[in-house]
Amino acid sequence: MSRAESVVPSSRRPRDKGSHSRRSSNVIPHVVLCVGAVLMVGPFVWEVLTSFKTFAASIHVPPVLVPNPFDWHNYLTVFQTLPFGSLFLNTVLMTLARTAGQVIFCSLSGYAFARLRFPCRGLLFGLFLSVLMVPSQMFLIPQYQIIQHLGLLNTVAGLSLPGMFSAFGTFLMRQFFMQLPVEMEEAARLDGANPWQTFWHVMLPLSRPGMLALGILVAIWSWNDLLWPLVVNTDPAKMPLSAGLASLQGEHLTNYPVLMAGALLASLPLIVAFIVFQRHLIQGIASTGIKG
Amino acid sequence: MSVSVDKSEPATVATDYRPTPARRPRRSGVHRGEAWWALAMLVPTLVGLGVFSLWPIFQTLYYSFTTWGAFGGHEWSGLENYRSLLSDSELLQALLNTVIFTAVTLSSVPLAIVVAALLNRPGMRGLAVYRTLYFLPVVTLPASVALMWKLLLSGDYGIVNWLLSLLHIDGPYWLSNPSTAIYALAAVSVWSSVGYNMVILLAGIQTIPRDYYEAAELDGAGKIRQFMAITVPLLTPSIFFVTVITVINSLQAFDLVFLMIGVNNPALDHSQTIVYLFYKTGFIDHDGGYAAAIAFVLMLAILVFTAFQFRLQKRWVHYV
Lengths: 292, 320
Hints:
Chain A is mainly α. Chain A has helices at residues 27-51, 55-58, 73-81, 84-115, 121-133, 137-149, 156-160, 167-178, 183-190, 195-206, 208-224, 227-232, 241-251, 256-288. Chain A is built from 14 helices and no strands. The longest helix of chain B has 30 residues, at 34-63.
């Protein structure tokens, strides 16, 4: 579908600095964008402020803007209530496993579809595309049963396994490999390199940007994934943060300062990673249109 | 992508390769056993997707024709589940909720177009900063988004109702009132998808040549006119794409319902989405057969909505 069509060459970006429309003032656009930005960031600011409030201050009407006194204990309470360390570890391990799995496996399969010739290639690729169209809920019940049969319920392996393979990732990497120049590859083949050597020594080094984009998308999707962890993991110690926070909500029904502290801690790593890898992520999304 | 396998070309390696400038072969030096290499590289993904995606589709389809007992095991019951679905008021309500949720979430598209257009103005500063701020909700853990909005929307001490009270409006209990809950969820969904849509639209908008705007300006067209006559028409392929993705994602909404509404909420019936109903049926009530039928309905709904949009696109999408 149109995923391929939206691949936009970022080099073609007319930015005429001296253009004559520059004279027009940008004050009103800035005002509009700032109002929007306040709406976008306001909830985060409120989250941070609330996480330092006492319980009484958090439910005070009219709202207390600045926490006074500054209460750090909410962060301690999070650690006392939730096995936060293990939740964090589970999330990191699951994210690493899925990301590594998809980057490796999808690079391999994407390359095969992009450059190697084999029987039934079109048919097989069509099959991949059709899997891409099916909503993941169609997989969920049998996936749960498979993980159950493997005895992997309530394990990090069970959390990660089905997410290590991806039709979308294959598609993305195939698109990426197809836009790389053929010449170097041909040269390698003429020198007697087999397809694996060509892939490993020539193509892989060239495909780092594609792998990075895929990796970031998979990492975001993994970190934030909720439905699958809820299904396979019922033991709080084996949950990732996404599902673990939901159970914090149950225990501290309205203790908002503690909830906000937990929510902030759980989302902070990904937000920091986003700010670091922002450029790659934006490019990845702009060229694929998928957040994973 | 042209895959022309030249049968006449000898499948040999570099040793006897002679350049033939007259007929430059598309792919020279076909490696013997290329298909085997391809197979080896495809195996992990083929097996993984076969086991965890392809087979489950058929298995789910099969389950949708079975009835599950309370103690495990299932038996064939034909169209029983689908017959019940048709008269299941909870499911119909969930479908309606999902459609409302999707429709409201779609308002993030025009908002994102405006933001992208403003960011693309010549001489606009702070693009990276704005983009980061607008994109923040996209990378934030859904549980975190849900919790912060639960606090903001709280009936008694939420800041939203406090602001409304300044205008002498008595705000409802947004998340437990059956007539507001789904709209509150959808509003949060708009908030968290504007940034994502904006990034895609901005990439599209940046490919529109500046000359068009300059020519329009020379002809005396105002900013609004330029936006409607140049930006929007030339952006329609990106807008179409963003719309399709937003619809597909919204039809599968689950996280916000699970995290912000929950099982004991009086508004649950009027705010649960299809996927939430699927989860509840399959994994809380352990009625896998019925849940499978719901999943199948969801897949059909997505197919129908997407096909519909692809049909409609001829009317309004301009490919240059």
